[in-house]
Amino acid sequence: MPEPFDIIAVIEPKPGKANRVEELLKTTAKAVQANEPGTLRYQVNRETKGDAPTFVMLETYKDQASLKAHGGSKDFKELGRAFKEDLLAAPMKVLFTKAVGGYASKL
Amino acid sequence: MPEPFDIIAVIEPKPGKANRVEELLKTTAKAVQANEPGTLRYQVNRETKGDAPTFVMLETYKDQASLKAHGGSKDFKELGRAFKEDLLAAPMKVLFTKAVGGYASKL
């Protein structure tokens, strides 16, 4: 797999659980930013409509070791435990992706 | 809705149809880049695993008029028609999103 590489994760909270999920993701993101130099992107995106908004994580890892560090981190494990609090309507969908066309920005 | 705003679209091709979907999205993206100054981001991302990879479009629009121009464009309408060629395993999921945490880049 070419490096760096992207991961896009799709998270679907149960109705009424979105704020709790947002809080957990933002807490994790702060720890990732502070502790994981190889996690080049870790952005929390929230759907702006509906009472069960979908979250989309846009992530980029410098290399496999950086992804391994992320997966093994205390904070990510805590996130995994917290998600078991009956917060999600479906299992988190984790997609390893690559940009194959279009453009990232016109600015 | 604050402007500019993001759209994340999740597209799930039927097995064996991913290359056709990629070709369509990349053709549309070229036209968008050439003809739509208000479409600030239009990036085609393809899952790198599996024979029915998911596509995730990351899009940003300067304002409502720019989104309207995109939706009304000849190219987007052609994409819509082409998608009716029995290419998708599920309807395209279109999410209006906002970044609420984390970071876009450490580079």
The whole-number mean of residue pLDDT values of chain A reads 95
Please give the domain count of chain A.
Answer: 1
Tally of helical segments of chain A: 3
Strand order of the largest sheet of chain A: 2-3-1-4
N-to-C SSE series of chain A? EHEEHHE
Task: Give the terminus-to-terminus CA distance of chain A.
Answer: 29 Å
- Weakly predicted, low-confidence segments of chain A: none
Shape of chain A: globular
| Rg calculated over all Cα atoms of chain A | 14 Å
**Percent range of helical residues of chain A:** 25-40%
CATH topology heading of chain A? Alpha-Beta Plaits
Q: Could you tell me which chain pair has the largest interface and how many residues each side has?
A: A-B, 42 and 42 residues
| Quaternary structure annotation | homodimer
Largest sheet of chain A: 4 strands, antiparallel
Look at the structure and give the CATH class of chain A: Alpha Beta
Task: Give the helix/strand class of chain A.
Answer: alpha+beta
**Do you know the CATH architecture of chain A?**
2-Layer Sandwich
Number of strands of chain A: 4
Tell me what portion of residues of chain A adopts beta-strand conformation: 25-35%
